[in-house]
UniProtKB/TrEMBL annotation:
Stretch list, region Disordered: 129-154
Record lineage: Bacteria, Bacillati, Bacillota, Clostridia, Eubacteriales
Compositionally biased region (Basic and acidic residues): 138-154
Pfam families (alphabetical): Fer4_7
Gene source species: Desulfonispora thiosulfatigenes DSM 11270
PANTHER family, alphabetized: NADH DEHYDROGENASE UBIQUINONE IRON-SULFUR PROTEIN 8, MITOCHONDRIAL
Keyword presence, Nucleus: no
Domain 4Fe-4S ferredoxin-type: 39-68, 78-107
InterPro entries: 4Fe4S_Fe-S-bd, 4Fe4S_Fe_S_CS, NADH_quinone_OxRdtase_chainI
Assigned keywords, A-Z: 4Fe-4S, Iron, Iron-sulfur, Metal-binding
Record's protein name: NADH dehydrogenase subunit I
Length: 154
C-alpha cells in the first residue's frame, strides 16, 4: 500500500503535537541526573598509587600527572591536572584506574568564560563533596543475580 510510511510519520507527529509539554525549570530546580552520568571528575588522592594507567588510557592526552619519590622509594602523587577542553568524556581513564580513585561525578555544569579555567586541578581541589556517578563501577544488581544463580545451581 502506497503512503503507509507517510501515515506512520504523520501519526508520530500527531502524538507529539497533542502530548503534554515537559519544561524543566533548570536554574531554579536541578534536573534529575541518571546514576551512570559521566560528569566532572573526582580524585581520591589517598587511594591513588600514581601508576599512570589513566594517562595511558586517555586517547587525547588530557591528563598530566606529576610524581615524586618518597623516602621508601615509592612514587607519590604530587600533581594531577586535566585539560577539559580536549576531554571526550569517554570514561576510559575511570575504567583503567586499578584502585578506583578516579571517578565521574554527577556535576554537569562545565561552561566557563575563560580558557584558563578549563584546566581541572584534581590534586589541589579533589572534588570529594560532589555526588558520585556509578559509571565504571561493577553493577551490584548483576553481581547479586549471578551470586544467587550460583547458589541455586548448588
Amino acid at each position: 500500500m502506497r503512503g503507509k510510511g507517510l501515515l506512520k510519520g504523520l501519526g508520530v507527529t500527531g502524538k507529539a503535537i497533542f502530548s503534554k509539554r515537559v519544561t524543566e525549570e533548570y536554574p531554579d530546580v536541578m534536573p534529575d541526573i541518571a546514576s551512570r552520568w559521566r560528569g566532572l571528575f573526582r580524585l581520591d588522592i589517598d587511594k591513588c598509587i600514581s601508576c599512570g594507567m589513566c594517562v595511558r588510557a586517555c586517547p587525547n592526552e588530557v591528563i598530566k600527572i606529576t610524581t615524586e619519590m618518597d623516602e621508601n622509594k615509592k612514587r607519590k602523587l604530587s600533581g594531577y591536572e586535566m585539560n577539559l577542553s580536549y576531554c571526550l568524556w569517554c570514561g576510559m581513564c575511570v575504567e583503567a584506574c586499578p584502585t578506583h580513585c578516579l571517578r565521574h561525578t554527577k556535576d554537569f555544569e562545565t561552561a566557563t568564560f575563560f580558557k584558563d579555567e578549563v584546566t581541572l586541578d584534581l590534586f589541589n581541589r579533589p572534588n570529594l563533596s560532589a555526588p558520585v556517578s556509578t559509571f565504571g563501577q561493577p553493577d551490584k544488581e548483576k553481581e547479586e543475580k549471578a551470586k544467587a544463580e550460583k547458589e541455586d545451581e548448588k
